[in-house]
Amino acid sequence: MLGSWQVLRCKSQVFRNLSTTSLKCGSGPKVAVVGGGAAGFYATQQIAKARPDSVIDIFEKLPVPFGLVRFGVAPDHQDVKKCISTFNKVAELPNVNYIGNSTLGKDFSFVDLKRCYDSVLLTYGTDEDRKLGIPGEDLRNVMGARDLVSVYNGLPGYETFPVDLDTDTVVIIGVGNVSIDVARLLLSPVDQLRKFDVTEAWLEKRLTSKVKRVVLVGRRGPLHVSFTIKELREMTKLENTRPILHKEQYLPIQDMLAKLERPRKRLIELLVNTALKEPDAKTAERYNNAKQSWELQLLRSPVEALPGPDGKSVAKLRLAVNIPKGDSVEQTDQIEEIETGLVLRSIGYKSIQADPDIKFDSKKGIVPNEDGRVSPGVYTAGWLGTGPRGVIIDTMNNAFKVAGNVIEDLKGMQEGKPGREGMPHLPGHTTWQDWKKIEQVEEEAGKPKGKLREKLWTVESMLNAIKS
Ligand SMILES: Cc1cc2nc3c(=O)[nH]c(=O)nc-3n(C[C@H](O)[C@H](O)[C@H](O)COP(=O)(O)OP(=O)(O)OC[C@H]3O[C@@H](n4cnc5c(N)ncnc54)[C@H](O)[C@@H]3O)c2cc1C
User: Fold this and answer.
1) Is the peptide bond before 448 cis (omega within 30 degrees of 0)?
2) For 120-125, what is the mean pLDDT?
3) Tell me, what DSSP letter sits at residue 223?
4) Which of 315, 344, 373 is the C-terminal boundary of a domain?
5) Are residues 167 and 204 in the same domain?
6) What is the pTM (predicted TM-score) of this model?
7) Are 326 and 443 in the same domain?
């Protein structure tokens, strides 16, 4: 049997016994955290530390933890994933349980959580990407950048997702770090990617890829790009690839550099220098010999995707030229066309209402809250509460703040609600020990290929690994 409910019961029994002796675990407040991503783990860390008498149960949809840290962050940026060592310590705390393969809105309800837990903290992230809202968006090969991310990062459900790299040019709408990640994963030498935990399916696609040019499209000008300097610098150094930045977009902002504050100033300076300065001889030679390019096409808005002769797959993207107007832009009637066989949108994400009883703002795609407070005893943190903003450190800061409010509201509470013992039976749920087994199987499978790990891609294969 999979990591059984019984095991968890035993663990809580131990807490109760301890509570009558020294540690006071288990009898205190019960906290449910829904979502085992960065926000869930960071909030748990704070609550567990402040209230060692509490029991915190992290409910996660998948058997594997870490959300976007595993399935979003690019595989060649393993240093970003160092936060996992903190999450591992959190999960091993004596008053924390990881309950995987358990989905809010499917296996248990929000009403169940409110009935059984003193605090319910929703951190289930953002599942959907924002649409462009243009004609032709439903054509084949127009998709979310995150779909592609899910293919190279092995998110369950994407095993057979159709991504066609049989095209010279890929267009990415959006100028944030996700767009840069995707451009890099499309252009980096396959041999460099191979050692990380990229899926084999992506490596195979890359081996037969015809992509030579990746165009990043931004609505506003260079002052408003939202990627960070490290990611941009990496792109300027990418092997066999030259950057194409359009000089006329940078000339008007040269004089504004002095007024900008760091670190923004350094980022824009790098952009301006790359666009306007003659590269040194070595770089110039590298750029001249490059067979691939990435291009930043700013002050453009997508207006229509057009099909090719089959009438089904995208073949062209129409862009309207924008002119800067104050802090925003005005769209003109001037239209440009790019021939492309793959269009990726990367203009943000939104959450879903996982259960009809959860308060939800469907326009903003978040659970409405004030500093994480939703209603008495109910909280939200991470991208579900803030929207898809910032990096892991921002998510951490938000989770810490919301956890502070949870702790504040639990002050004085001694005896808690029943916790998971009052919850519906979750027959297929998995435990932290189960995840550790999966991790071991993945690392073993990676070794012969010289990879960090070979991720198990389907939930079924994860459950089989646990059984084995
Ligand atoms: C493609 C991409 C790349 C990124 N790269 C970087 C980077 O390089 N560096 C950086 O600092 N930041 C990066 N970020 C941002 C970073 O990932 C986020 O700041 C952070 O992961 C948000 O954490 P979260 O806990 O709010 O959401 P998530 O990480 O999405 O966690 C939510 C969790 O909830 C689970 N869940 C969903 N629905 C349910 C349900 N109904 N029941 C139970 N569980 C559920 C999900 O499976 C998931 O594990 C990136 C983001 C993306 C999208």
Assistant:
1) no
2) 98
3) G
4) 344
5) yes
6) 0.93
7) no
Cα 404 to ligand 1 centre (Å): 21
> Cβ of 389: how many Cβ atoms within 10 Å?
11
Q: Measure the CA–CA gap between 219 and 100, rounded to whole angstroms.
A: 40
Q: What separation in Å is there between the alpha carbon of 40 and the centre of ligand 1?
A: 10
Beta strand spans in 309-372 (E): 314-325, 328-339, 342-345, 349-350
Query: Which of 159, 161, 160, 156 is CA-nearest to residue 144?
Result: 161
Ligand 1 pocket, Cβ-based, cut-off 6 angstroms? 34-40, 59-62, 67-69, 72-73, 77, 80, 103-105, 123-125, 146, 149, 177-178, 181, 354, 382-383, 390-392, 395
Closest residue (by CA) to atom 8 of ligand 1? Answer: 73
Which residue has the CA at smallest separation from atom 17 of ligand 1? 68
CA of 386 to the centre of ligand 1 (A): 12
The predicted structure's pLDDT at residue 168: 97
Beta pairing, strands 128-129 & 142-144? unpaired
**Structure tokens that stand for 296 in this block:** 């930043």
pLDDT class for 378, splitting at 50, 70, 90?
Answer: very high
Domain carrying residue 316: 132-344
217 closest CA partner among 323, 344, 326, 329: 344
Task: Please give the full DSSP string across 96-123, using - where no structure is assigned.
Answer: EEEEBS--BTTTB-HHHHHHH-SEEEE-
Give the pLDDT of residue 366. Answer: 96
Q: How confident is the model at residue 380 (pLDDT cuts 50, 70, 90)?
A: very high
Q: What's the token pair of residue 240?
A: 């066999």
Dihedral (CA of 223, 225, 226, 229) sign: negative
Q: Specify whether the CB–CB gap between 180 and 232 falls below 8 A.
A: yes
- Of 432, 440, 370, the C-alpha closest to 405 is 370
Among 182, 144, 28, 128, smallest CA distance to 384 is for 128
End-of-domain residue from the set 326, 344, 362? 344
Q: What is the pLDDT of residue 412?
A: 87
